[in-house]
Amino acid sequence: MTDTILQKTIYIKATPAQVWAYLTEPAKLAIWFHKPKTSLIEGEYEMFGAESGDKLMWGEVLLAEPFSRLEYTFTIAPMGDAVSTVRWNLEEVAGGTRLSLSHEGLPQGEEAFGLTLALDKGWDDHLARMRASAHGD
C-alpha cells in the first residue's frame, strides 16, 4: 500500500516574508485556517476555531526556517491517535511566492479515505482563503 500524501502548490502575489506571516502569526492564521494562541515557532502548539474557540488541531513545530520552510506534526480529533506531518516550502518567484504543501503520514485504508477526502478539500478551501486575503480580494 502506498502512503497517502496530499500535495498542493499555489502562487501568491506576496513576498515570502508576507506569506510566512500567514503561516505562523495567530492573527493571519485566523483569517484562513485556525488560530493558535502564540506564533508558530519550534515546540508544541494548539490551534482553535477562529469563531468557535474550540480546540481543532495540535502538534509540534519541528522546523521553522523563516521565509523558506515550516514543518509541524498535525493531529485532529477524527484521526484518533494518528499523527501526520505538514511541510510548507516557500520559494520566491518573479512577482511573488510559490507556496508548496505536503501533508504526509495520513491514516491508511478504505475506512480512512473519507478523512483523506475531507482534508484534501479542506486544504483547497484554506489555501483559497489565504490567497484571497493576501491578494486583497
String of helices and strands: EHHEEEEEEH
Give the count of helical stretches: 3
* Poorly predicted regions: none
Biggest sheet, in brief?
7 strands, antiparallel
Strand order of the largest sheet: 1-7-6-5-4-3-2
- By DSSP, the count of extended strands is 7
Instruction: Please state the CA-atom Rg, rounded to the nearest Å.
Output: 14 Å
Shape: globular
- Could you say which structural class the secondary elements and strand pairing correspond to? alpha+beta
Mean pLDDT: 93
Which percent range fits the helix content? 25-40%
Cα separation of the termini: 41 Å
Strand content: 35-45%
Protein architecture, described:
- The chain is α+β, with helices and mostly antiparallel strands and 137 residues long.
- The chain has helices at residues 16-24, 26-32, 113-135, and strands spanning 6-12, 35-36, 43-48, 55-65, 69-74, 84-93, 96-104.
- A seven-stranded antiparallel beta sheet has the order 1-7-6-5-4-3-2.
- The N and C termini lie far apart (41 Å).
- The relative contact order is 0.23.
List keywords for this structure.
about 140 residues, seven-stranded antiparallel beta sheet, globular, alpha+beta
